[in-house]
Structures are given as C-alpha cells and as structure tokens.
Amino acid sequence: MLLSANVPIAVGLEGMVEVATHPDSDILLNAVLGSIGLEPTLAAIEAGKTIALANKETLVTAGHLVMERAKAAGVQVLPVDSEHSAIFQSLQGQDRAAVSRLILTASGGSFRDRKREDLKNVTVADALKHPNWSMGAKITIDSATLMNKGLEVIEAHWLFDMPYDCIDTLIHKESIVHSLVEYHDKSVIAQLGLPSMLIPIQYALSYPKRLELGQAKRLNLWEIGVLHFQKVDRRRFKSLSLAYEAGRRGGSMPTVLNAANEVAVHAFLSGEISFLSIEELVEAALERHDVIELPGLEAIKEVDRRTRAFVRSRIKAND
User: Can you give the residue ranges of every domain in the chain?
Assistant: First the structure.
C-alpha cells in the first residue's frame, strides 16, 4: 500500500483484495476485465459482502468455487451483465422449478452479417466497430467472435443452476430484448430496454428495490418499429460451440477456455494474429488439456498460467 497526502492508495491484486474487503462497504461491484477478478471476489465472499458481478470471467474460471463459497457464507451473487440481469429480473416472483429454458440474446457483433469466409482478412479496426454497444476492446472482439456469449452461457449455468441443454442463444440485432426465460407452460418472460448498462447496474445495487433512473431514456417501441431474431449458426460462430463444449466438460476446462481466449484476443488486438486465429488457438489449448475435475484455487491458477504460456508459445512459433 502507498500513502498519498494521508490517503492510502492500494495497487495490484493486493489492492483489489483490500478494496473488495473494505470494512465500510457492504457490496462489491466487480467490473474488472479478465480472471484477475476471481481472488478479490472470493475474498469479498469470505468477508460477507454481497457480490454484484459484471466480471463474467470469475464464474467461467471458477464457478464451482465461487457459488459454493457464496452459499456457505450466505452471500448473494447478483448479476450485472445486461443478459443475466434480464434473466434475474424475469425470474422475480416466479417458481424457479417451473423454468424450462434460459435464452440469452446476442447482437451478433461487428461481423454478424458476414459469412465465415469473409473473415480471413478483417482488421482490428473493423472488429471494433460494434453496431450497438460502446464497450472495451476485449469485450468488443469477444462479441464479434461470439465468445462473449459463450462465456455468458457458462456464467448463466452457475448463476441460475441450469444445465447447458436448457440454455439457448439467439441473435437479436437491436439489443432491445436483453434475455428471456421460458417456463414449463411455454410462457416466455423477457426484460426489455435500450442498449445501456444503467438499468442492470442500478438494479444490482438497489435490489430488491427499483429506484428512479431519471437519466435513462425511455424505451418507446413505436420508435424502434421492428425487432429481429435469428437462430445462431454455431458452425459460423465456432467460439460459441467451444464454450458450450468446455462448459459441459466442466472441471478445469472453462479455465482453459477463458485463459486461451484472453491471450489470443490480446494478440489479435496487437496485430500478431488474424481474427480467425483466435478460435484456432482456443481450440488447440482445449484439445491438449487434461481435465482436473474439481480444481481448487491453486490448481485453477496453475492451469491458467500454463494455458497462457502454451498459447503465447504457439503465437511465437507462428511468427
């Protein structure tokens, strides 16, 4: 810890843990990027903090640890991602045992209207032109590959205790319907709103209350006019298929998926690899991994480290 004008400044992982467990706080809003958010989240759970989670990699990397420890500590894990917030809101007042399917919507990203063969020579600048959302570079690339939706599928599995066969995805270009819940009677309840994070962030922080949000624009459906929906072609979006496979295999496999993807996306953003090489590197990392069924924190950290080293070595070998 550093001191500046009598104000303590915490830095690095140690600083994140200190902030996450600060005695004067009662809720942790984790919105950092990547698996670096795991340890602060676990520390906050041990400290009895409510977790508002926008850092999907935490549950992808170690969902079993996070949810088990949260349950043991009596700590709530509230979703902040717009898709998971939409599901959470659509579940309020309902019988959880009557849920038959969760449906996550996806914008389709920067290249949603392009065929797979048209993606060989796309540039970083092309990939960063998201049609609906203003997000960081890494998440925007994940949206273009649909890996972001794959990570969200794994996150939804842990948040809502749903089997992967009961979690579906749907391309929805307008990003107005943020996700849907189907019940056994075939009723479908959805949450709608303009593409903005204001509502899901505030709902997690104010739950179970709904507060006035004056700065948010009202959704007038007549201004939108038409909403489009399209089934996801998993052969076109291979990263989504890889995420489903890793999630179903379980154990340490989702850790590999996330670590490999983080390194590969960084390499693409740095101009070291092509866009389609992202999924090729992730697939190679998954194929070589021997699964650890119930990894502890140290095992997860080691799998993460080895996976990153492997992907970097593959990138370097192909230079």
Answer: 1-79, 82-238, 250-313
Q: Please state the rounded mean pLDDT for residues 141-167.
A: 96
C-alpha 212/C-alpha 150 separation (Å) is 33
Q: For domain 250-313, is the CATH number 1.10.1740.10?
A: yes
What are the counts of helices (DSSP H) followed by strands (DSSP E) for the chain? Answer: 13, 10
Q: Which two tokens stand for residue 121?
A: 């020579």
Q: Residues 261, 308: contact at Cβ < 8 Å? A: no
Token digits of residue 232: 């996801």
Amino acid 109: pLDDT: 83
Q: pLDDT by residue (tens digit) across 259-291?
A: 999 999 999 999 999 999 999 999 999 999 999
Calculate the alpha carbon distances from 240 to 96, 125, 232 in Å: 26, 22, 9
Q: What local confidence, expressed as pLDDT, does residue 5 receive?
A: 65
Instruction: Give the C-alpha separation, 70 to 44, whole Å.
Output: 10
DSSP states of 197-252 as a string? SHHHHHHHHHTT-----TTSPP--HHHH-----EE--TTTSHHHHHHHHHHHH-TT
CATH of domain 1-79: 3.40.50.720
Q: How many whole angstroms separate alpha carbon 223 and alpha carbon 242?
A: 37
DSSP H or E stretch at residue 28: strand 27-30
Residue 111 identity (one-letter amino acid): F
Label residue 2 by pLDDT band (50, 70, 90).
Answer: low
Residue 4 confidence class, pLDDT cut points 50, 70, 90: low
Q: Are strands 99-106 and 167-171 parallel, antiparallel or unpaired?
A: parallel
**pLDDT reading at 130 higher than 80:** no
